[in-house]
Please model this.
Amino acid sequence: MKTILIILSLILPFNSNINQKKAKSLQRFAPAKIDTSYQYAVNTIKKYEKYSKNEYNLFGDRYIGYGHLMLKTDTMTSLSEFQADSLIKVDLNYSLKMVKSCTNRIPVKRKMLLACFVFNCGIGRLKSSVLLSLINNHKPDSIIEKQYLGYVFANGEMIPKLKLRRIDEFKLWK
Model:
């Protein structure tokens, strides 16, 4: 924290208690903003995935916890809620890493939105989407929102809960 305050004090004019207060407030603001969008993403995923202690099948894939897609190497058959909470964060971090690899410079909150999308639909779906092209070409938010809110189908059927989920997730964009 001292290092950050020193760097910020070099940027701000000297000889003032107000500058130290500004430096402290700037230091606290940035991480809180990131943490807030991250926690919002986790909470939104948990809201729509619901916790499942045991493994379950959906559309031919195996899942556990809060919508964790089980890999062939996964051997767990049940998870505590604490373990599922940890696993969702691992999955979200992985999704965020994938998003960073295929997006141009966009704010963290917007990357978090795309990480939610990847968590739900997969990185392949994002990479092949019109949505990613619109975002990387910096199209207007209204066009991006319309495109994002269109991802509400599963196995050819419109799913009302997916529509609600997309609306909640898109709050990260704004």
Observations:
- The chain has one domain: 2-8+17-170.
- Residues 1-33 have pLDDT under 50 and may be disordered.
- The beta strands are 52-58, 61-65, 68-69, 153-154, 157-158.
- Residues 2-8+17-170 form a domain with the Lysozyme fold (CATH 1.10.530.40).
